[in-house]
Amino acid sequence: MTLLSAPVETVPIGRQRLSDLPRLAKRHPLVFIGGGLLTLLIVLALAAPLYAGDPLNMDPFKRLQPPSPEMWFGSDNLGRDVFARTMFGTRISLMVGLISAAYAAVGGLLIGILAGYSRAFDSVAMRVMDGLMSIPTILLAIALISLTGPGIGILIVAIAIPELPGVARLVRSVVLGVRERPYVEAAVCGGARLPKVLWRHILPSTIPPLMVQGANVCASAILTEAALSFLGVGVPPEIPSWGNMIASSRLYLAIAPLTIFAPGICLAVTVLAVNLLGDGLRDLFDPRAKRRR
Amino acid sequence: MLMHTTIANDVLLDVQNLETHFYGDESITRALGGISFQVKRGETLGVVGESGCGKSVTALSILRLLPKLTAKTVGGEIRFHGRDLLKLSEREMRGIRGNRIAMIFQEPMTSLNPVYTVGHQIAEAVQIHTKATKSEAMAKAQELLRLVRISDPERRVNNYPHEMSGGMRQRAMIAMALACSPELLIADEPTTALDVTIQAQILRLVVELKERTGTAVMFITHDLGVVAETCQRVIVMYAGRIVEQASVVDLFARPSHPYTQGLMRSVPDRRRGRQRRLPEIPGIVPSLREPIVGCSFAPRCPFAIDICREKTPILRDVVPGHGAACWRAEEVMGA
Amino acid sequence: MSGPLLKVENLTKHYPLGTGFLNKTIPVVRAVEDVSFSVEAGETLCIVGESGCGKSTVARLLMRLVEPTAGRVLIDGTDIAGLKKNALRAWRRRMQMVFQDPYSSLNPRLTVEKIITEPVENFERLSRKQRKALAAELLRKVGMSPEMMNRLPSELSGGQRQRLGIARALALQPSLIIADEAVSALDVSVQAQILNLLLDLQQQMGIAFVFISHDLGVVEHIGHRVAVMYLGRIVELAPCEALFAKPVHPYTEALIAAAPIPDPTRVRLEAPVEGEVPSPINPPSGCAFHPRCPIAVERCRIDVPPLVPMADGRVVACHVRAPVTDLLEQSNVIAGDQLALVSESHSSISG
């Protein structure tokens, strides 16, 4: 009977050795595919100045050129190198995605843990979160940017705020579940102070779901940034971002399709990589979710 | 053919060399290492052992209810009325499950559907296996609830599982299991989750119902006290094997396997007087992931000698009708 | 002889159901109702009862994991219910708890060493070496090899995990350990190992136990005195041998009779007690046991019976078996002897 009813626990991670990597890759291929793709994109983005040309350089004589050895993806309506712009665009997308995810994760974690532990804070914070959830992301971003003027910083904040409630609620539910666990009570009985209980016994349990949620937030942040830039309220138009590129090239789809397809495909691949990583992490942390062989 | 009829007269369920394996990511757990036993018509067979010994797996193997992706019965036969259940189609098996062999579980809340009334669920069980109309089935449900001594069954048929107490839910489960007058009832730790006074009521009910309906019962439990109060014959399991098999009186009078003896002695019992230290079985249950050489109990056994660590003892009769899987069973019985 | 190590006076815990935003009267769960007892140094007091009788709530109240609605918990004469956080932390050192479930009571992410030394590190800084030495010592005390130090709980068996739970409780060298169903989740052979360990520890270190269990066999084996609880109240509190030899309260009787006995030749004569434990939200009036009681009289429906001291040092709350009138008559005659008997039974236990 223990075989069937043995308590399922999440496998403590961090004990696997490097030599286990091939085995891990076989058991959790999604993490490796998603993580690999994402790593590749990050390297490409960081190294862009080394191999790609100047994304801002305009050449009125070379507008809407087809691909050539100098400009692999051709040029756009202002004669800028589409390949360089796409590669530099990766920087913007990943930066916005990762930083908004980090903001949302850290902010949500703090709110969630406090809400999970303090009833008074909980009742206030969760109502505020309900309020936040009812504001559409795009509208909030437009409102904020019209107040401050366009900029990447404000864009990140605008994208991260609507993601806060989801993260906070997730963390709160984990905390509420864990704080009643006997090992937390045992720590209290052993004389542990509240900060230690939170840090040592409660926080670690929130990390796995937080990472999964973080990946989801990152993916949707990348899409939101592209959407906002496309609408002209995101990244300032002179900065190469995929949304800007698609927006400014949409009239020339028939003449120079790569001006749209290059950033579009990159966007799709990036979001796919992040989502794969998120799904893979979920399976890794919660073996029950995965269909067993 | 002739032989089958004689068996069918006496033996209801005949399990031979049943082997079930569980498949993990990197390992195989040999949950049942080839067990053989019989359940006779109308008898109550106790199956005792500690967690992980394979007693629940035995029940699930018989009913073919093992989790499909991780477990498989890899060998043996389960003859019910002479027909091997392992060879039946899934469809034929459905006709047997719940109809001729019924099962009740430890936690009744998880085996009752929370969104239907108890009466509805019992009536459904009646309707699946008989041609009763809806109102007939409901009437039968009420009658069954009365049979399991639920007071005020007219009202209780309309209760949802959460409106009942644990004891009452277990009674409802028994009512459902009895809906089609099964020939064999497998009860897997049916009283473990209940309080002692409620346990006493349920045990009494099971014994009474068995006498009234003539259903054979396979009673799986870890509690030797429960076995003593309800069963006629007992098999003791350890690490996926049967280590002892005897009538209940015989088993308690002269346990012949060192594990059975250890088990009996480690239960606090006031009839032995108040000793300050309990005799304990040292060590822990072996892992079933690695093949075991020799007797699986040898590392914990006070009687173990060289042969025990080399050759696996088979279950053999020490005295007629009392079997033990131990090389030194005769000496153990005398000890 | 100084006062008792632990003294519990009129402990009561009501859980409100819901927040009562609109309606003023909120229904409450009467989990623990007016419970008093004391524990001497080195003694084992067992609390038995069925699920919902409030025995686990008593444990949590003693540890102040929940705040009492009313009543006092005194350790060496100090009321811990009134203490502020830091003073309470200090008092927690004297009293530790062993939990029921050896799986969920150990943090799955920490190593054995960290788990069992954490209580000490809450109060003082340990160097790496000191911590290892302490862990090794604690592991040896509970019969485990110090080599286990670097394992994770998931790599251990149920019995080993429960030993860790005990090692953690021992870390602060408490004078009282509260064991809440500490052996209930274990297999019998492992249960025997753990019970023996507890007995050994008591003998070596003079630790007192409040041992909470539903298993009468275990209670009879390990207890010095036993309190029987029913629906939040103590119905009988007696020296262990006396209680099992001759239960007075009809519920104690029913409980002992219901426990299955591993002897197939014994014929069970008595019918099991009828009915089930009523809800603590709406307990029966008078004596909570009266709807199931075979000897209930009219008065049981009306008055809650008080705990009445009996001649053999036990207290019983039953109108029929321990009527108050008897006490009054007795107290007129043998009031002095009565007290002497009670304290005698106490000192014989602790001595």
Q: Largest inter-chain interface?
A: B-C, 46 and 44 residues
In quaternary terms, these chains amount to: heterotrimer
Radius of gyration of chain A: 23 Å
What is the CATH superfamily label of chain A? MetI-like
- Radius of gyration of chain C equals 22 Å
Strand order of the largest sheet of chain C: 6-7-8-3-9-10-12-11
Share of residues in strands of chain C:
15-25%
What distance lies between the first and last C-alpha atoms of chain A, to the nearest angstrom?
20 Å
User: What's the helix-strand series of chain A?
Assistant: HHHHHHHHHHHH
Provide the low-confidence segments of chain A as ranges: 1-16
Tertiary shape of chain A: elongated
Low-confidence stretches of chain C: 331-351
The helix/strand class of chain A is: mainly alpha
> What would the principal axes of the Cα set say about the shape of chain C?
globular
Element layout with pairings:
The complex is a heterotrimer of chains A (293), B (335) and C (351).
Chain A: H1 2-5, H2 21-27, H3 29-46, H4 48-51, H5 82-117, H6 119-133, H7 137-148, H8 152-179, H9 182-189, H10 194-231, H11 242-249, H12 258-285
Chain B: H1 2-10, E1 11-23, E2 28-40, E3 44-48, H2 55-63, E4 71-80, E5 83-84, H3 90-96, E6 101-104, H4 108-111, H5 118-129, H6 134-147, H7 153-156, H8 166-178, E7 184-188, H9 196-213, E8 216-221, H10 224-230, E9 233-238, E10 241-247, H11 248-253, H12 258-265, H13 306-310, E11 316-319, E12 322-324, H14 329-334
Chain C: E1 6-16, E2 28-39, E3 44-48, H1 55-62, E4 70-75, E5 78-79, H2 85-92, E6 95-98, H3 112-121, H4 128-141, H5 158-170, E7 176-180, H6 188-205, E8 208-213, H7 216-222, E9 225-230, E10 233-239, H8 240-245, H9 250-258, E11 308-309, E12 315-316, H10 324-350
Parallel strand pairs in C: 3-8, 3-9, 6-7, 7-8
Antiparallel strand pairs in C: 1-2, 1-4, 4-5, 9-10, 10-12, 11-12
Subcellular location (chain A): Cell membrane
Family (chain A): Belongs to the binding-protein-dependent transport system permease family.
Domain ABC transmembrane type-1 (chain A): 90-278
